[in-house]
Amino acid sequence: DASDIEKGTYPHFMLKEIDEQPFVIRNIIQKYQNEDGSVRLDDDIREAMKGSDRIYIIAAGTSYHAGLVGKQLIEKIAQRPVEVHIASEFLYNMPLLSENPLFIFISQSGETADLRGVLVEVKKRGHKALTVTNVPGSTLSREADFTLHTYAGPEIAVASTKAYTAQMAVFTLLAVDTAKAKGVNLDFDPLQELAIVANAMETLTDQKEQLEQVARDYLTITRNCFFIGRAVDFYVGLEGALKLKEISYIQAEGFAGGELKHGTIALIEDGTPVIALATQKHVNLSIRGNVKEVAARGANTCIISMEGMEEEDDAFVLPAVHEFLTPLVAVIPMQLISYYAALHRDCDVDKPRNLAKSVTVE
Ligand code: G6P
């Protein structure tokens, strides 16, 4: 059938889409680059970002996790305040809005009903909206004032992979463009740093055997798994846990390293897998401290660190990238470990039970 042709030599769309990530990032660089090598976004979007006093990101699922990273990128690079909200909750727990809010809807499909509910309401109130999507022309794209295309190509597997990294890459460029418009100085070349990310992704997608072994070592016989991280690694841990639970049905949760002691550590038993991310120098000691705490209670600990911060017993070491962009590479082992865990458990990787690729009901 047609889907077999599209998959090519790959056994699953998810694996194909994981492998496409370096090319997606390079494609984004090309699409948003001026001839002089600077970042190019629509003037309208630049003006909307510049004119707003606070940005409200609205999203669901994996796109929400990209939004958490997107907030950090915009606040650190462009120095604009950002809030991130789960779409389905926003209208119930609506924050007091600033004077000139700009709403950013992040959606791979551009069709998620929970987001549309918020979009309709904020448009009714006269606010501006930007949709960051993989499908220009989708409902959320048409109904917003502006669209930023993530150029990831069609994503078929229900579990989102390349759309997530593409969303974060586009947020990097949005942050850089806004910084320039606001006269904020940058001490790095974003397009060059994204090119380094693409190369690092390629290195990682070539390390499948190693990551399959991590899946075997930690996830063959377990009913749960915890992901811990601090700072931006916390957000990647949330996405790692979502990937794993979606396709392998292992009960997986992501936690902030510092929150462990406030509850979760009670769940640690002999052999409980705990995957810890350590890509951020400023929290390296603290997250490794958390790993020791859970190891002392019997956890089967797996540290994924980054070149320059690695220690002898780390299970996996990521190639170094700019500290703001570590989520784009740190998520790849999460995706591949989840893929192999699901495969070893005979799960339907591309079409997990009870889930839909795009959820058009509230
Ligand atoms: C569904 C999918 C998820 C996705 C979420 C948001 O639940 O199964 O993978 O992250 O919707 O989708 P969107 O298209 O709005 O990014």
From TrEMBL:
<feature type="coiled-coil region">
    <location>
        <begin position="194"/>
        <end position="221"/>
    </location>
</feature>
<keyword id="KW-0963">Cytoplasm</keyword>
<dbReference type="GO" id="GO:0004360">
    <property type="term" value="F:glutamine-fructose-6-phosphate transaminase (isomerizing) activity"/>
</dbReference>
<feature type="domain" description="SIS">
    <location>
        <begin position="214"/>
        <end position="352"/>
    </location>
</feature>
<keyword id="KW-0808">Transferase</keyword>
<feature type="active site" description="For Fru-6P isomerization activity">
    <location>
        <position position="357"/>
    </location>
</feature>
<comment type="subunit">
    <text>Homodimer.</text>
</comment>
<keyword id="KW-0175">Coiled coil</keyword>
<protein>
    <recommendedName>
        <fullName>Glutamine--fructose-6-phosphate aminotransferase [isomerizing]</fullName>
        <ecNumber>2.6.1.16</ecNumber>
    </recommendedName>
</protein>
<keyword id="KW-0032">Aminotransferase</keyword>
<comment type="function">
    <text>Catalyzes the first step in hexosamine metabolism, converting fructose-6P into glucosamine-6P using glutamine as a nitrogen source.</text>
</comment>
<keyword id="KW-0677">Repeat</keyword>
<feature type="domain" description="SIS">
    <location>
        <begin position="45"/>
        <end position="184"/>
    </location>
</feature>
<keyword id="KW-0315">Glutamine amidotransferase</keyword>
